[in-house]
Design brief:
- The protein folds into 3 domains: 73 residues, Multidrug-efflux Transporter Regulator, Chain: A, Domain 2 (Orthogonal Bundle); 49 residues; 127 residues, no CATH class.
- 67% of the residues lie in helices and 3% in strands.
- It contains 13 helices and 3 strands, in the order E-H-H-E-E-H-H-H-H-H-H-H-H-H-H-H.
- Strand 2 and strand 3 form a beta hairpin.
- The longest helix has 33 residues.
- The two termini are 35 Å apart.
- About 6% of the residues have low confidence.
Length: 252
């Protein structure tokens, strides 16, 4: 049984553009291409796509994913490993949920706030490998040092700013007649880029850094990586953010 690229994009929560990109990289080639140029995917291709999406969820870059797929050709064994990692992540998220529930209880006066348990399951270093692969070890080290140097109030303010930006993007994407090229969307794109400029170690913050390349790369990652798309309400919202950012830097 085969599915069209549009069907697979919808079912997988990604985009046809991303699937074509995966094809160009040799990550997920379609099972066949019709005379009309349409791509079709059979069950084997779907299993490979699932593996790619799982590896993206684990924070691997596309180059690393290509290496893993080349080295681990036994799909059942590879997926068994993925399942183990997913269960570990499920356990970590469960600890986060419990930590937040305890904090809410403390704020309601139901129990005492305990610093030792507030941050159980939290780890800002889990994107380290991907950051180092994309922008170098120095970029991660400088960003990490900046984050660790913030006090609790500064971290909270940064998180609130990020949350507000994400909420404004979601509202803009869901508004009737939403247009990524509209003045409102372009103002949000400006805010987003200024927010990125405030993170030391990134090309956006460095004088002479490749700001446009950095923004374009992140914009595509927002769509292709479900962890980031979730910040913008899902795949459709992430696509809106991507398109607005690409318009803003002249790469639409």
């Amino acid at each position: 049984m085969e599915h069209s690229i549009q069907q697979i994009a919808r079912l997988a929560g990604t985009t046809s553009r991303t699937l074509r990109h995966y094809d160009r990289l040799g990550l997920v080639p379609p099972s066949r291409v019709g005379a009309n140029g349409y791509r079709y995917y059979d069950e084997r291709a779907l299993v490979r796509l699932q593996r790619v999406l799982l590896l993206r969820e684990l924070g691997l870059g596309l180059a690393q994913i290509a290496e893993v797929l080349d080295e681990q050709r036994d799909e059942e064994s590879a997926l068994t490993t993925h399942l183990s990692l997913l269960r570990q992540e499920q356990e970590r998220l469960g600890r986060q949920v419990a930590a937040v529930e305890r904090t809410i209880g403390a704020l309601r006066g139901e129990e005492r706030l305990m610093a030792e348990t507030m941050f159980d399951g939290f780890d800002h270093t889990r994107y380290r490998d991907e950051v180092e692969e994309r922008w170098g070890k120095d970029a991660y080290a400088r960003s990490d040092a900046w984050w660790r140097g913030l006090d609790e109030r500064e971290r909270e303010a940064w998180g609130v700013r990020a949350q507000q930006l994400g909420g404004d993007w979601i509202a803009a994407a869901e508004a009737p007649g939403a247009d990524p090229g509209s003045p409102e969307a372009q103002r949000l794109a400006d805010r987003h880029i200024e927010w990125l400029r405030g993170i030391p170690g990134t090309p956006a913050a460095e004088p002479g850094g490749d700001l446009e390349g950095y923004v374009a790369g992140l914009a595509e990652m927002y769509v292709s990586d479900a962890r980031f798309a979730a910040n913008y309400g899902g795949a459709a919202g992430a696509e809106f953010v991507r398109d607005a950012l690409l318009i803003r830097i002249g790469r639409d």
